[in-house]
Amino acid sequence: MFNGTISEDISHFNLLMYLDLSENNLTGHIPRSISSLRNLNFLFLYNNMITGFIPPEIGNCSSLVEIRLQHNFISGNLPSEICELHGLKVFHTFNNQIEGHLPQCIERMQSLEELALYNNRLTGSIPFGISNLTNLTFLSLAHNDLSGAIPSDLGKNNLPGLVKLDLTGNRLDGRIPSGICAGDRLVVLALGNNNFNSSFPKEITECKSLNRLILRDNFLQGSIPDDIEKNSSISYFDIRGNLLEGRIPIRFGFWRNLSMMDLSDNKFSGSMPKEFGNLQNLQVLRISSNRLTGEIPWELTHCQKLTELDLSMNNLSGRLPPGILSSFTMKIIRLQENKFNSVIPESFSSSQTLQELQLGKNMLEGPIPCGLTKIQHFSSVLNLSMNKLSGEIPKCLSNLDKLEILDISSNGFSGEIPSEVNNMVSLSFVNISFNLLSGKIPGSWEKILDSHPGSSLGNPELCLISTESTNCGKRDRKSHARAKILAGIIAPVLLLAFLLAAVYILLIRVQNSSLADQSLLHSLSRTEDLPEDLNFEDILHATERWSDKYVIGRGKHGTVYRTQSVRTRKNWAVKKVDLSETKISMEMRTLSLIRHRNVVRMEGYSIRNGYGYIVTDYMPGGTLHELVHREKPRMALNWETRFRIALGIAQGLSYLHHDCVPKIIHRDIKSNNILMDSELEPKIGDFGTAKMDSDIDESSTVSEIVGTLGYIAPENAYTTRLTEKCDVYSYGVILLELLSRKLPVDPSFEEGLDIASWVRKNSQSNYSDFLSCFDEEIQSWDSEEQRKALDLMDIAIKCTEFMADSRPSMREVVGSLVRCPENVDRLRKRLFSSSPMSANTESNHGIFPGSESYKKIGE
């Protein structure tokens, strides 16, 4: 692997035909002298750390056939001189920082077959002349900031025809051109996350070659015509998150190649077509968050390859079809928030692949069948909450020894909890609240319930030692007291031993890491790309060589200083990182991919003598933590300010999770990492622990818990699998901070409570107690503004649900915030009734998984 820069002396190799310097640690610019390489056919510089712009002189390399510059830090505009490369067939420059408009002269590049410029910062419209590139087969401009309409003739003049078109994640609008598949070779059409607002493009489904159609998260409206193409070849069909309505066309049931269909988050009504039973290759079917009625058609049992079925948040009713529940291939079943009113069938015993079963908030009756507990690989979630189930908790439940999450809250279970449940050794969360349980809690469950306040409430006859319940015998309490005394003696000794061992291991790791990285640090001893008005000497001068009085922030991943340009007097922020302790390349690469008003953007960097320096805009408003928790002077925060902050953070996170390629998971969202500009517009910062989707696969794990106490999602305690829902949880904590002006772990809370569990506990008593969760300023607002604050609190509660799958996505949160809340009075009455709580009263259920208020998010 090579380090350093590409020398200007490369011009001496004027007979060179093939130059491949990819996948190294090269820095610096592409030399202008490359123009001398008139015989060069292939230029491969991808996967480096190259900065600067594409030199206009590249237009002199007239023999070029392929250019691959992806995965660098290249910026600036695309030079118009590139249009002189008439023999160029492949131009890949994705995952860089290229700005400006696509050159209008691009239509002169008649040999071009592949154009991949996704994940840059391109603006403006798509040039109409791109339609005249007759040999173009692959076009990807995804995840830029392009606007306007797709050229109406795109696809019509391309012979033999487009094969893949990906324009995902822009601001394109208007209609989808009808001739886009004119050559009948189009395999992939991805237009998701744009602003298309026309009706569903029926003619696209008539494209015989089309395999993947992705139109998710647009504003497509109206109904899908009943006479849609019957024999479509589409196998992957995603129209989630639009405004489509009416009945689901029967003809979908004849798309025999279909393996994945997602119709979620629309307004489809009526019953599910029984013709779906014809889909022999269907593996994933998602129709959640619609308005479907009727029963699940029994014909769906013919889909023998189905692994995931999500029909949650509809108005489906009737009995649970045994055939679907006993499928040999099913892994995930989500039927929560419907109106199913049967018993749970015994037929689960024949399903050995099921990992997650969500049946919460229905009207199911009867006991928990033992057939359900015979599933050997049931390893994730069993949610039976908020039904009408009854009887005792069966001993056979202990067979689910791989299950991680169990929620049977808000039912009518009675009797004692069998001691056999101690065999459920994988459980990390149990919710048995609001039942009629009695007696002692088995030891393993007691530990879990103690760590999650509220998960055992509403069982008057249950022995709760942690609350000194009168249902517990005196002898048991004395034994418990002795155990607590013994624990108080032993715990400090064990803690000291643990700390000493941890320090020793840390010293060994640092020593080994330092030795291993010496050669790398030497090779990166000095390279930089700073803003035009700032040089390194300015930084040293303005900070008086890193004086503490210029420090504006400290964290696990470096210290941030305020600095200033000598020439323009503009303030900047510079983060100083010791490269022997922290890898800066990940944070640099992450920041280089980001272009959003609510995310801090890297404006330059420098690597010198073992230290890395990241330059960003200076944020005069400080951090959100300072704004919310500063005592003197305490700044008033009206509704508009709080809402703007909440929306800005949500939009930034939604961008990271849904619009970046690859997707970015921050993993340390907290109020100290939200920076405020002069107008109190929030910006997400500090990407030292961030992970990209390209670094994550389904089996990917991390070796340590990252994040900050009080903001860390509960699942981080029992799984190391990466998911963006940990950011959603942290965002919910920030909303609670913003509304209560209390710390995530506040000294005023009872022992063992954090801000999320504190709010839940107060919400379970009465409305006046819940209103005390808001700070004094909100309590003095008029009723209309308090209604708005209540709705924001509802979103915060949803975001801090214990089960990650029960939390909304950040895109759904943004959708909820930008739309006016509906039925606030009804929600307020149901969630926070001042009447005494009862296990059978619906007003208790608002903050539990699957509550009605959850449907507001994303509607």
UniProtKB/TrEMBL annotation:
Keywords: ATP-binding, Glycoprotein, Kinase, Leucine-rich repeat, Membrane, Nucleotide-binding, Repeat, Serine/threonine-protein kinase, Signal, Transferase, Transmembrane, Transmembrane helix. InterPro entries: Kinase-like_dom_sf, Leu-rich_rpt, Leu-rich_rpt_typical-subtyp, LRR_dom_sf, LRR_R13L4/SHOC2-like, Plant_LRR-RLKs, Prot_kinase_dom, Protein_kinase_ATP_BS. SUPFAM superfamilies: L domain-like, Protein kinase-like (PK-like), RNI-like. One of its GO terms (molecular function) is protein serine/threonine kinase activity. It is an enzyme of class 2 (transferase). It is found in: Membrane. Gene3D superfamilies: Phosphorylase Kinase, domain 1, Ribonuclease Inhibitor, Transferase(Phosphotransferase) domain 1. This is non-specific serine/threonine protein kinase. It comes from Fraxinus pennsylvanica.
